[in-house]
Amino acid sequence: MKPIEVAKGIYQVGAVDWNIRDFHGYSTYRGTTYNCYLIMDEKITLIDTVKKEFADEMLDNISQIVDPKRIDYVISNHTEMDHSGGLPRLMHKIGEDKPLFCSRMGQKNLSCHFEEKWNYRVVENGGELSLGKRNLVFLETRMLHWPDSMFTYIKEDKLLFSSDAFGQHYAGPEKFDDEIGEAIIPHALKYFANILLLYAPLILKLVDKVTEMGLVFNAICPDHGIIWRQDPNKIIKAYVEWSNQKPKRKAVVLYDTMWGSTGKMAEAIAAALREEGVDARPMHLRSCHRSDIMTEIIDAGAVIVGSPTINNGIFPTVGDFLTYMKGLKPQNKIGAAFCSYGWSGEAMEIINRELEGMKFELIDPGVKVQFVPHKEALEACYQFGRKIGQRLAVLEA
Amino acid sequence: MERYVCSVCGYTYDPVQGDPEGGVKPGTRFQDLPDDWRCPVCGAAKDLFEKE
Ligand SMILES: [Fe+2]
Ligand SMILES: [Fe+2]
Ligand SMILES: [Zn+2]
């Protein structure tokens, strides 16, 4: 990669991971990037690094601007390995005694990751650091999305280095929002849905705080994907909207099926929902990736879950998805279950219990069909779908 | 009644408010929280809290 100039004397020197398709269980069809930022000032400073395997690529990129040995300061905004993995190689190259700035939790977590006794300098929320011409401010953003997470802001250039926040898993020829346009938004949404959703209340608080502080951004530079420079406020506004999780007239009917019965029920339910004017789609759990389903769920008002009963329980992929969704804590959802079964039929109760635990509004006990849904059972699915559709219309109004 | 702060994420447990979402009534002292109570923001255990 060639260094990308973000502002005068400030470069993105990270790496592109074109071929990664599974990012700890999140499907990355377009790969990703690990962004890190070099600031050329009296104190030459690097913000974050890259995944371990890309450390040499990062050093090559830095070398195109300056001999890496001349780096004075390193800042770690986030300790997760896609951003800290390059630290051992970097520190070895530039000198193990160079100051490494991070939050208090950052020091704790880096020490758990790496045995090296680096020259940690813990920064406080609102703490400042002069690089010469420029002054940095650190903003702790605990749990966005790890306890160590923080932002670094350059006062003079009005640049925000936001770590994972506002990022997207996207590798492409475009490096800035103005080069890609609206096409980046689905990637940003998917990132939000799968990484940040559970901290939506904290995001709303943070945006309030930043507004109160009167911070202005010429650009927001995340650690993944493109840089927001044309309209940085656009992604902030989108985060507020996504965090609010206002239910739309949209339903995700997710299911798995063994002999097609639960599948038939899903189709009937989704068709009824569409007749009620709801944007409803059946999503089969072995055809759609869990991270794509989660993305669809963000603005959906209803999540309808279908499973056959297998060995007195739910289908494994349904269990996988419910576990995943529970951790991400979506809010303001209607939930309901539908099941086919042979003789015992425990799946429906299990799903209902899970959805209740996630504080979904259960508006119907669900539809249960023995073996194969025929006319009558399909009619029941139909009524079930219509009922949910009507409730969604009320919620949207 | 004393407030306690989560050393992981910074959440403050305020006994006046309790933690209704977690089934803890307003007016519950930190000491009286059940042993398996966890930070409502990050999930940290009770022993990771410090007095404010
Ligand atoms: Fe991360
Ligand atoms: Fe990351
Ligand atoms: Zn906590």
Structure notes:
The complex is a heterodimer of chains A (397) and B (52). Chain A is α/β, with parallel strands linked by helices and 397 residues long. Chain A is 36% helix and 25% strand. Chain A has 13 helices and 23 strands. In chain A, α9 packs across α13. The mean pLDDT of chain A is 97. Chain B is an all-beta fold and 52 residues long. Chain B contains no helices and 3 strands. Chain B has strands spanning 4-6, 12-13, 49-51. Chain B has a 3-stranded antiparallel beta sheet with strand order 2-1-3, with no helix packed on it. The interface between A and B is small, with 6 and 5 residues. The structure holds fe (ii) ion (FE2) (2 copies) and zinc ion. One fe (ii) ion (FE2) binds at residues 80, 82-83, 164, 223-224 of chain A.
List the helices and strands and how they pair.
The complex is a heterodimer of chains A (397) and B (52).
Chain A: E1 4-7, E2 10-12, E3 15-17, E4 22-23, E5 26-27, E6 32-34, E7 37-39, E8 45-47, H1 55-63, E9 73-75, H2 81-84, H3 87-94, E10 99-102, H4 104-113, E11 119-122, E12 128-130, E13 135-140, E14 150-154, E15 159-163, H5 177-180, H6 185-196, H7 200-213, E16 219-222, H8 232-244, E17 248-255, H9 261-275, E18 279-284, H10 290-297, E19 300-310, E20 313-314, H11 316-328, E21 334-341, H12 347-357, E22 361-362, E23 367-370, H13 375-396
Parallel strand pairs in A: 8-9, 9-10, 10-11, 15-16, 17-18, 17-19, 19-21, 21-22, 21-23
Antiparallel strand pairs in A: 1-2, 2-7, 3-6, 4-5, 7-8, 12-13, 13-14, 14-15, 19-20
Helix pairs in contact in A: 6-8, 6-10, 7-8, 9-13
Chain B: E1 4-6, E2 12-13, E3 49-51
Antiparallel strand pairs in B: 1-2, 1-3
The structure holds fe (ii) ion (2 copies) and zinc ion.
